[in-house]
Amino acid sequence: MHTDPVFYRFLGNKSFSHEDVWRRLLSQLGHWAMLGYGSWAIEEKATGHYLGSVGFFDFQRDLTPSLSGTPEAGWVLTPRVHGRGYASQALQAALDWADAHLRAERITCLIDPDNVASLRLAGKFGFQEFARTTYQEGPIVLLERPR
């Protein structure tokens, strides 16, 4: 479990309990079983250390406009590897997989407006802002990548 508070800044600003981690794991497996897509772990080849995850989700979020029914891209990496290209490599691999396996007309994502690095990464891969709204009492940017 991560103890670095920076890791959680854009994930609700709190660490996850054992129960939270278990629920997230079950959610990930459920995505694959029910929707045919989900997430992958990002591992450092040289050390085998877990660095984060990347993938696609449909969390049925309570927001307007709705993202439900579209694969929602998401990624998170431990801060100690930020700026080293891991996120770009992981997102490229995930989008290559999506292009080969998903029939969706678009892929969406939501990003905290203060998360400049993720907004930059999304833009690098063709995601374009289509709305700004509120999610869980905070501002959020909605982006889409037409296919």
From TrEMBL:
PROSITE patterns: GNAT. The keyword Transferase applies. Pfam families: Acetyltransf_3. Keywords: Transferase. InterPro entries: Acyl_CoA_acyltransferase, GNAT_dom, N-acetyltransferase. It comes from the Bacteria. GO terms for molecular function: acyltransferase activity, transferring groups other than amino-acyl groups. Gene3D superfamilies: 3.40.630.30. Residues 1-147 form the N-acetyltransferase domain. This is GCN5-related N-acetyltransferase. It comes from Hymenobacter roseosalivarius DSM 11622.
